Give the backbone structure.
Amino acid sequence: MNKTVTLHQSTGLAALPAPVRRLLGIGVKNVVVPLLGIVLFLGAWSMAARNIDTSLGQFPGPATVAQQFGSLVSEHRAEREKAEAFYQRQEERNAERLALDPTYEAKIRPYTGKETFFDQIRTSLVTVMCGFALAAVIAIPFGIAIGLSETLYTAVNPVIQVLKPISPLAWLPMVTMVVSALYVSADPVVPKSFLNSMITVTLCCLWPMLINTAVGVASISQDLVNVSRVLSLPPLTHVRRIVLPAAVPAIFTGMRLSIGIAWMVLIAAEMLAQNPGLGKFVWDEFQNGSSDSLGRILTAAIVIGFIGFLLDRGMLTIQRFVSWDRNSAAR
């Protein structure tokens, strides 16, 4: 406290009103300190990059990555312009044919141009959210059930402990073979590659949600359980009014762990199986081996990390809205 007062006096901050000093303190903590950390990281990265020579040239620094990101943005815009021109030509052609023959059935063929970096991001996000949603639909109800029943927990716990550590590298070949055997259609609703990635993500991110939900439900205060018994609440009402509100912090802890795992697993699965997405983009650039490849791979890695951060922050924001325990959603 004395050091803080001395610091304020020496810097002239003591003359400012207390609310202004408090806002300045919050600004320094939340903006200046993180920016300082980022600047130090970029400086260390730039210095290290100048001293690393690879078979594809010098290791890319921050400036090279920014340049490659701009190049990827330009490629995406160029591809979108090609797509718009493609559809416009079809509409003009159909209009001419309809003018000559009113019975002509106009057709619009889909654009099949190259998928850009941002198309791959969209594909990965759709896949990871579908896999995560499927895992949540399975894990949360099942976690509540085994959390409420000690007998059921004892029965399934050995299976969970065996399946939980299995790597996505092991799940992927099995998923691919099962999907290929069962999903046979001349006109598939979704591509097999999408199902392979989505199911692999589901199998790998299922367990943190399941275990945390079960632990959260099993840890409900006995007082709350007694209240439910006194009121003679039906089972579903007991779950809705007592179990779910009390277990929300633990459920969201599991969901935050699962979304991070889902994102990491998806990138690895896309790389291994050559399924569309950011993982395939990284692998294709690695195989390409051009002078720009390393910069593009590093750009993709940073974008992958940034999206993972946003996914976690998004889940944390939802938790703050629905959870009664603000301390569990503090970070």
Summary: The longest strand covers residues 53-54. The mean pLDDT is 86. The domain at 63-86+116-322 is CATH 1.10.3720.10 (MetI-like fold).
